[in-house]
Amino acid sequence: MSSLPPGAYRPPADRWGSFTKLASRLPEGSVAVVDRTVARFHPTLIPALEARSPRAIIQLVGGERAKSMASLEKVLAGGLNLPRSGTLVAVGGGTVGDVATVAAHLLKRGVRLVQVPTTLLAAVDSSLGGKGAVDLTVRGRVVKNPAGVFHYADETWLCPELYATLSDAQVREGSIEAWKMVASLDAGLFKRYVRTPPALEKLVKDARGLKEGICAKDPYEHQGLRRVLNFGHTFGHVLESLSRFKLSHGDAVGLGILWALDVGRHLGITPEPVAHEVERALTRGPGVLGRDHAAELSRRESLKDVAALLDADKKAGAKGELRMVLLTAVGTAEVVDVMPKTWRALWPAWTRGARP
Ligand SMILES: NC(=O)c1ccc[n+]([C@@H]2O[C@H](COP(=O)([O-])OP(=O)(O)OC[C@H]3O[C@@H](n4cnc5c(N)ncnc54)[C@H](O)[C@@H]3O)[C@@H](O)[C@H]2O)c1
Ligand SMILES: [Zn+2]
C-alpha cells in the first residue's frame, strides 16, 4: 500500500490474474460495488468477494443510468461504516467505475480505490487516469459528467476471464479506443500492429501504457496535454448524438477518426499516405464501421443543427472554430483550431459516405 493520501496521483499498479485469485488481496471489511450483469455472468465473483468478509456488496445495473445521484447515494450509504483506512473495490464497466470513483473520493473524504474493469473500454480507458463522474438530469435532460472528481485507483486488477462474456460489438468498441491511442501516440507500435494484430491482453497493456504516459505528465488536466486522447471524439460525439445514442461510443469514435483524418488532409496537416494507412488499419484491425454508417446518420441533418451539437459539446470556440486533434504523422497528434468552413466543405461528401 502506498503512503500517498488515497486518490492522489500515483503510477498505476496493474495486477493481472483471475478475479478469484486477486480477490484474496482485498483487505477484510472492504466495500464492493459490482455490476449486476457481470455478477450474473460470472457466478464465482460474489463468493470470492464474500470470502473477504466485506462490509457491504452493492450491486448496480451497469449502463449510463448507473451514473446517477441515486446510485451514488446507494454506494455512499453502503460505505457508511467503512473506516478512513478502508478500501472500495469497483467491479464493472466504465459506468460502475465512474460512480464508484466519485464515492471513493467522498467517503470519509477519500478512501482507497481498487478498480476491476470488466469491459474492454474500461480496461483501456476509463479505469485509468483518475477521473470519475456522475450525470445530472436538468429539466428532463441528462447532462453527462458535470459532477466529477479526480481520484486515482490504488490498484487495478485486470482479469481476462471476465472479458470472455463481452459481445463482439463491445470488444470492437474497446479496441477502437485502444487503436486510437496507438495511431496517435506510437508509430512503432502502430507498424507492428498492422503487421500482426495484437491479442486482447497485449492491446490492453499497450493502450494502458500509452494513456498512462500522457496522464503521468498531466495527472489533473492542468496543461491540456490529455486533449490528444480526444482524437476522433469531436465528430464522434456528434454522430453519437445524431444516432440518439444507438451507435456505441467506440463505433462513433471510429467514424469520428475517419472524419478527423479527412479534416487533417483537407488542411494539409495530415499527409495523404498517413490518412490512407490509418483508415485502412482501423478498418482491418479493430473493425471501424464503414463510412455509409456515418452517411446514414448525417444525411438528413442541417448544418445548423450539427454546428449547435458541436457548440454544446464545448469543443467550439467563439467563432465556431473546433479544437480538433489531428495527425501530423502516424503516432504524432496536434491540437488544431479548425474553422467551420473546413468541415462544412467536407460535409456533402460525408453525407454521401464518400471519402472527400
Ligand atoms: N473516467 C474516464 O476517464 C472515462 C473514460 C471513458 C469513458 N468513461 C465512461 O465510461 C462509461 C462507458 O463505459 P462502458 O462502455 O464500460 O459501459 P458500461 O459500464 O455501461 O458497460 C456496458 C455494458 O456492458 C455490461 N458489462 C460490463 N462488463 C461486462 C462483461 N464482462 N460481460 C458482459 N457484459 C458486461 C454492463 O452491464 C453494461 O450493460 C461512460 O459513462 C463514459 O462516460 C469514463
Ligand atoms: Zn472515448
TrEMBL record:
GO terms for biological process: amino acid biosynthetic process; aromatic amino acid family biosynthetic process. Residues 59-172 form the 3-dehydroquinate synthase N-terminal domain. GO terms for molecular function: 3-dehydroquinate synthase activity; metal ion binding. Keywords: Amino-acid biosynthesis, Aromatic amino acid biosynthesis, Cobalt, Lyase, Metal-binding, NAD. Residues 177-285 form the 3-dehydroquinate synthase C-terminal domain. Coiled coil: none annotated. This is 3-dehydroquinate synthase. It comes from Corallococcus terminator.
